[in-house]
Amino acid sequence: MMRTRPLKVALLGCGVVGSEVARIMTTHADDLTARIGAPVELAGVAVRRPDRVREGIDQNLVTTDATALVKRGDIDVVVEVIGGIEPARTLITTAFEHGASVVSANKALLAQDGAALHAVAGQHDKDLYYEAAVAGAIPLIRPLRESLAGDKINRVMGIVNGTTNFILDKMDSTGAGYQEALDEATALGYAEADPTADVEGFDAAAKAAILAGIAFHTRVRLDDVYREGMTEVTAADFASAREMGCTIKLLAICERAADGASVTARVHPAMIPLSHPLASVRGAYNAVFVESDAAGQLMFYGPGAGGSPTASAVLGDLVAVCRNRLNGATGPGESAYAALPVSPMGEVVTRYHISLDVADKPGVLAQVATVFAEHGVSIDTVRQSGKDGEASLVVVTHRASDAALTGTVEALRKLDTVRGVASIMRVEGE
Amino acid sequence: MMRTRPLKVALLGCGVVGSEVARIMTTHADDLTARIGAPVELAGVAVRRPDRVREGIDQNLVTTDATALVKRGDIDVVVEVIGGIEPARTLITTAFEHGASVVSANKALLAQDGAALHAVAGQHDKDLYYEAAVAGAIPLIRPLRESLAGDKINRVMGIVNGTTNFILDKMDSTGAGYQEALDEATALGYAEADPTADVEGFDAAAKAAILAGIAFHTRVRLDDVYREGMTEVTAADFASAREMGCTIKLLAICERAADGASVTARVHPAMIPLSHPLASVRGAYNAVFVESDAAGQLMFYGPGAGGSPTASAVLGDLVAVCRNRLNGATGPGESAYAALPVSPMGEVVTRYHISLDVADKPGVLAQVATVFAEHGVSIDTVRQSGKDGEASLVVVTHRASDAALTGTVEALRKLDTVRGVASIMRVEGE
């Protein structure tokens, strides 16, 4: 069974993840050979700064010409860990055209152009694998795509960004405000100097697009994902959450509508009950909850980022792609046959927690309750508190559409007795 | 890409799992066709009692002659959900010999004869898949075998039997004794009339053997797994556990030795800290914690048994095997290249919680501590309590080998001042 010609791997990018991939390919070479059925050889490493010393990597393999590397024609698998849209997209396309399969960790690119890249891979009968693009080391794409291939997935809800989970966990456990928690995350290396992609939910939205696409066999692009960051979550919100027996997480939620005819994908902060398994996901860990017809509720938990964990996912894909290549076969490609419409946020149905600053006088509650009723939003609980002429109302609703809730809030803002809408937060996980 | 000739599936067994497999094959036929690339057709159902009415199954497909069914020669995939060693083993072997691949949910058979069955599958270039054999619907075998194929797994620790977790959870939450909790589990259908396979740990041991084999690329048979049931866990043990901030779970633990040169596999009740993710696994749910070099700590959680969840796992395998068949390829077979020795229980290193009934007089603690020291078992904490001439000592040790602990306990029993060893329990998850 064992053949002697090694499979040749080209590595695009040699940062935190790439260097770890190269290191494990060396230290675990015998294991990889046994598991694949042939040796794998690092045939080239494309980098931007060739003069930087990279321990354990033969300097002769290093090149700045990534295009020439993927065009060599003798490369079996290209591992793309550059990130970003270009030049990664062109390099991956070129790799397929020159006979290589591709393993990528590039969530932004896959969320934006996954369908087009799968099409090129398919034309050339090559594999495109990207387990590392979502939730780091956690096996998630393979289980969704293969283990649950005989089931019907109705919901994928998860914490898929470690940076924001670290910040929210810190706010929850210490009572810190957003800025203070972000500063600590930055100091500890959990947040980048420019944290926008994480805290504004762009990173999580890309992952939601990828997960929704796989779960529902439907093309879901980044633009289809409703996105709300977590920069406006306050210590007061956490206090409100605690009063409800909840905490706050930034969630990516992909759902099939109740009638099964459409899907939605969204990223936003939400309250979830402390008893929900996602509530106890601490620090920079990720976890994804999956609900399906036959399997019921599953959860996958683990480190969502970092060089080693991401490299573990990349190498798992590398082994699979190499095995496919030796078999003369390819693994499952894009599956978008269901082609369900992606509904806008207005059609999402969930529960809401709304804090209002109101005038402290009789009849306010009746006025507010009337507005909810007029918009068809049913109230679950109301809590009133007030002193010194100031008063607040906290309303928790039953399930209602986002459109109905938005209409309700617009009408509330027009009431003389409502001085302000202090916060609106969705309540999930019940 | 779509071919019209359907893939033919033979179902062996039509009980709780089999009938659910048949039902989903019908209700989800279009999805299965799209995901596989060809329709799948139920070509025959072998049962013991053909006269029983099976809703949704064409009576013309039902046969009592399972052997004739697997010998037909036109069957693409045999789904074996009979359970037990024979006739399942012979039927699976015959299926391979007559050109079929096999999907099985049979943990007992795979733990005992997995290597031999893989060998026959390999000779005939056929697939043998069995995701459903361990932890029901939880994708576990595929992640271990494929997602982590580029990593080095050091530890797999899990709750892999729902019946015993239901019983222990009930004892923990209500203070009930073992028999009372078992009676409730039986009344609710969580325990079988004869619960031996579950409560004595045989079921979990079979799963441990399968998991250890895959995780360590080493043949591990049921006989290699140390097994201790949970029938002797008492309400007093739960009280002791709570005093330590722990609960008690029946765990399957597969470990690579610190030097990497050998492995162990064992099933026994153990205390684990309430802060450990496995501690919060409630009711009949299963969860498995995996530790690897690069990925770090992962956890997989979900329903561990039941018709629907098990059918979900069977159907995921069915889709994979059908795709392989259309590709003219096979998936990863047995991987036992590492062939590490499986060490006996004496070499397992862990911590222990020991309750002793002792004479209430001066010097007892010194005597007991001396015995521990003489056997090289280092004490972490001791708690002494006594009244009315009776006294008890609770000792929690640092990490020590099972052999050293056993020697210690034998010596303790010989002390005049030790009236009895009330309980010994391992402490895991730290």
From TrEMBL, chains A, B:
<keyword id="KW-0028">Amino-acid biosynthesis</keyword>
<dbReference type="InterPro" id="IPR001342">
    <property type="entry name" value="HDH_cat"/>
</dbReference>
<keyword id="KW-0791">Threonine biosynthesis</keyword>
<dbReference type="InterPro" id="IPR036291">
    <property type="entry name" value="NAD(P)-bd_dom_sf"/>
</dbReference>
<keyword id="KW-0915">Sodium</keyword>
<protein>
    <recommendedName>
        <fullName>Homoserine dehydrogenase</fullName>
        <ecNumber>1.1.1.3</ecNumber>
    </recommendedName>
</protein>
<comment type="pathway">
    <text>Amino-acid biosynthesis; L-methionine biosynthesis via de novo pathway; L-homoserine from L-aspartate: step 3/3.</text>
</comment>
<keyword id="KW-0521">NADP</keyword>
<keyword id="KW-0560">Oxidoreductase</keyword>
<dbReference type="InterPro" id="IPR045865">
    <property type="entry name" value="ACT-like_dom_sf"/>
</dbReference>
<feature type="domain" description="ACT">
    <location>
        <begin position="353"/>
        <end position="426"/>
    </location>
</feature>
<keyword id="KW-0486">Methionine biosynthesis</keyword>
<comment type="similarity">
    <text>Belongs to the homoserine dehydrogenase family.</text>
</comment>
<dbReference type="Pfam" id="PF01842">
    <property type="entry name" value="ACT"/>
</dbReference>
<comment type="pathway">
    <text>Amino-acid biosynthesis; L-threonine biosynthesis; L-threonine from L-aspartate: step 3/5.</text>
</comment>
<dbReference type="InterPro" id="IPR016204">
    <property type="entry name" value="HDH"/>
</dbReference>
<dbReference type="Pfam" id="PF00742">
    <property type="entry name" value="Homoserine_dh"/>
</dbReference>
<dbReference type="InterPro" id="IPR019811">
    <property type="entry name" value="HDH_CS"/>
</dbReference>
<dbReference type="Pfam" id="PF03447">
    <property type="entry name" value="NAD_binding_3"/>
</dbReference>
<dbReference type="InterPro" id="IPR005106">
    <property type="entry name" value="Asp/hSer_DH_NAD-bd"/>
</dbReference>
<dbReference type="InterPro" id="IPR002912">
    <property type="entry name" value="ACT_dom"/>
</dbReference>
<comment type="function">
    <text>Catalyzes the conversion of L-aspartate-beta-semialdehyde (L-Asa) to L-homoserine (L-Hse), the third step in the biosynthesis of threonine and methionine from aspartate.</text>
</comment>
